[in-house]
Write a structure and sequence with these properties.
Elements lengths: L2 H12 L5 E5 L5 H9 L4 E4 L2 H10 L5 E4 L8 H4 L5 E5 L2 H13 L4 E7 L12 H9 L1 H4 L4 E8 L7 H19 L7 E7 L6 H6 L4 E4 L1 H4 L7
Parallel strand pairs: 1-2, 1-8, 2-3, 3-4, 4-5, 5-6, 6-7
């Protein structure tokens, strides 16, 4: 894979849009990330706290590290000091833990709330009803060390573009609905994270501000063990 050329093509493609690229670097060696960095990429996505922390210590300090995978509460403390955005917050218990770890280091930690939009049982995420209840809860209103910066969703893994578009369109409608609500001061609907290597073009058309792309940049995932 020509990582440098792939990055440049994505950045050129995205420049007319108000959408940014999260280069999904999970399982990839630091050398690959460095190559993408030198081509102009600054946002990288990882799905394991330990792997992301190890890479953050080796690579340039102006990289924005995004946690894009399902995050266990006992791992939050490892990434709290430096993570730029946590994409997949799917429960009030996880949000509470992020707030707790943020308060220990006096840091406001940006998060996205993950919404279940796919017609698959394997995906994590809040329902629309759970989202509204969470945003209106007294517990969330009192959290001073998290910033809810938007929503995130994963479409059904299917070749049916009509289905994928319907799911992204529904998430954008929910995003706009929440944005129009009277929200606590630390909730600001700025980011809509949707779209991956197979469906990012549809996601951009439907209003995504962050696409998460790995294999189209770095090639197939590296599996170990």
């Amino acid at each position: 894979m020509d990582i440098s050329n792939n990055i440049k093509e994505f950045l050129s493609y995205l420049s007319p849009n108000s959408c940014r690229l999260v280069a999904v670097s999970k399982t990839k060696p630091p050398a690959d990330i460095q190559e993408a960095y030198e081509a102009g990429q600054r946002i990288f996505g990882e799905n394991k706290a330990q792997e992301m922390t190890e890479k953050s210590e080796l690579l340039p300090k102006d990289i924005e590290w995004h946690m894009i995978g399902h995050l266990q509460r006992n791992k939050v403390k490892y990434i709290a000091p430096y993570v730029s955005l946590i994409h997949a917050v799917d429960s009030i218990r996880l949000l509470s833990e992020i707030n707790k770890q943020g308060s220990k280091i006096d840091r406001l930690i940006p998060c996205l709330l993950q919404i279940h939009i796919a017609e698959e049982e394997t995906k994590f995420g809040l329902s629309e009803e759970e989202l509204i209840l969470l945003l209106n809860s007294d517990e969330v209103k009192e959290m001073e060390n998290v910033k809810i910066a938007g929503l995130m969703g994963m479409a059904t893994n299917t070749d049916d573009e009509i289905q994928v578009r319907k799911e992204f369109k529904g998430l954008k409608r929910l995003f706009d609905q929440v944005d129009a609500m009277e929200l606590p001061g630390h909730v600001d609907m700025k980011e809509l994270s949707m779209g991956m290597s197979g469906d990012y073009t549809i996601a951009i058309e439907e209003g995504s501000t962050l696409i998460r792309v790995g294999s189209a940049i770095f090639g197939a995932r590296n599996y170990t063990g």
